[in-house]
Amino acid sequence: MAAKLTNSTKSELFAAKKRHVTSYDVAQYAGVSQSAVSRCFKSGGSVSRKMRERVMKAVEELGYQPNAIARGLITRRSNMVAVIVSNLNYYPEVLSQLSARFTERGVHVLLFTLDQESDVGRILDQVWQYQVDGVVVAAHLAPGEIEAFNKRNVPLVFYNRAYSDIPVSSVSCDQVEGQRILVNLLVKNGSHKSFAVVSGPADSVVSMQRTREAMNRLHDLGIEDIVQVSGDYSYDSGRDAVDRVMAQRGALPDAIICANDMMAFGCMDQLRYGYDLRVPEDVSVVGFDGVRAAGWSSFNLVTIQQPVDRMAEAAVQMLLDRVENYVLPPEKRIFSGVLRNGATIRN
Amino acid sequence: MAAKLTNSTKSELFAAKKRHVTSYDVAQYAGVSQSAVSRCFKSGGSVSRKMRERVMKAVEELGYQPNAIARGLITRRSNMVAVIVSNLNYYPEVLSQLSARFTERGVHVLLFTLDQESDVGRILDQVWQYQVDGVVVAAHLAPGEIEAFNKRNVPLVFYNRAYSDIPVSSVSCDQVEGQRILVNLLVKNGSHKSFAVVSGPADSVVSMQRTREAMNRLHDLGIEDIVQVSGDYSYDSGRDAVDRVMAQRGALPDAIICANDMMAFGCMDQLRYGYDLRVPEDVSVVGFDGVRAAGWSSFNLVTIQQPVDRMAEAAVQMLLDRVENYVLPPEKRIFSGVLRNGATIRN
């Protein structure tokens, strides 16, 4: 046993190694058991007044900060959720909404950003290691990866990725309905007979849904003059798409349907500044998402506005409900997008 | 003591409560001490071959995932850093760069987003609770708040917030130099005699530095016709700024200097679509940051491009160096911004 030290010597010794004082240090310093220290910090922990005073004195003198993570090991809650997002640069509103809403509720966000949706598999191991209470995923998972969540009983909510054949919770914007509204609008005003459809990244299910619905709906309405080119959601790929449509058709179509707003901006800029054409007088353009810049006067884009605030709120609430009660059955919530009436469709 | 159970019964019992299998569960299942389990997962931990086999069998059967957080309690490292950002919507590139670079190195990011820079004090308590290894802060801290980091020996690196009178690490873009380049460019070409300067949020030190330097430099170069109005970094506040300049001066100045790009876009759109003026023929506009949209043909903005990739890399490296070795002295790294030659200054 160590020679008896005065409290001030002990305090100095602790100060010298002061980085991350632990409950073990507090117990040693107070001369009590570690479990007694734990009980002082646990709600409803049984501990005598004298013991509590002794521990709290040590806590104060050592500058001990009760450790949320260590507490998590006791309650088996980390009070952390993981948020996995791709395309952060194209749609930062989603992350800032999710982050703000979790923070409001005292839940912390461990962030994983992906360059490409298909990278998600590689980071799941890291997610498991932190034993987060739940995960919001705005990327595509393979069925086996979803199964891994179930196996570990980690609640999972998809953001804008819905699975029709797997029972898993999700919050989405109705891509099909939104796309149909846009196509109807273009076709029914009678001045658009030829179309280009610009899809997003090949590994994005959302982009795929939007593009497929646009193609289907155009066909259903009897339109036959359609070219399809692929982009990657970026502004630059929207510009390129115009050149590629031009190369394929030899002329520009009446309207260009883009799988997101960012590509629509690139498309509009290339039409205006690359081809010296007017939008919408020469070519109409529509997007999807309703990002902030859609409302800028330079674009004033016709698009489908996703109700990001309501969707983020729903995702946060659904996840935390399932952290509280793991056996809640999966639920899919599908929000209608709202048509943003801009000035990029000609009469 | 519990009656002896067969392994398959035990395995089922554990499966029933399988959420978050802990090292305690593994120890119980294997019939060994918890410290023996820990030694199996600690690099260099001394443990017999037989013991390791026994533990690993339990690990496999229970689906135990060695817990990064629990391991952190042993090494006193959480392998997590906090990133505190404000203005996420105006400048998502910073966060996505920081996040990608930490992730590359196997370090995880606990994200705190702020609506307003001045909210930062309220979240520091939450940061302490997670005992992160270090923090990157892209917001302003009061001296007492910085002192709280020192007291806890938590390494801290500021992103784009430098303190001249406090020894603390920071990575910044040279706001003063950048602003001076822009003002020189405008004044020296001889066609700008009257100016408006649009500042950002009142609690942003970066905005304050940019605006102050613009005012000082204009005065130094003998310009006297200057109005100053304040915005909040948003596109809408850039639009409003034009109206307020108009109200104050009764006419628009030759050039408008905005404290960030987003306000410059709002400004340009209001000049073009609100007043039917041409940029730059009627009014020149400059921004600061070099966000992606500055390169869009609709804007093609003259601005100072912050070298975000190099700045993010420096911030990550400086922080992790200090996590390794806490006694490294503070360091300030100041990167020059790069002039982006657009088409928003008239000849």
From TrEMBL, chains A, B:
- The source's domain of life comes to Bacteria
Pfam families xref list = LacI, Peripla_BP_3
Instruction: Give one GO molecular function term.
Output: DNA-binding transcription factor activity
Q: Keywords in alphabetical order, please.
A: DNA-binding, Repressor, Transcription, Transcription regulation
Q: Which named protein is this?
A: LacI family transcriptional regulator
Identify the species of origin. Answer: Kineobactrum sediminis
Is DNA-binding included in the keywords of this UniProt record?
A: yes
Record CDD domains = HTH_LacI, PBP1_LacI-like
Annotated ranges, domain HTH lacI-type: 21-75
Q: Which SUPFAM superfamilies match?
A: lambda repressor-like DNA-binding domains (SSF47413), Periplasmic binding protein-like I (SSF53822)
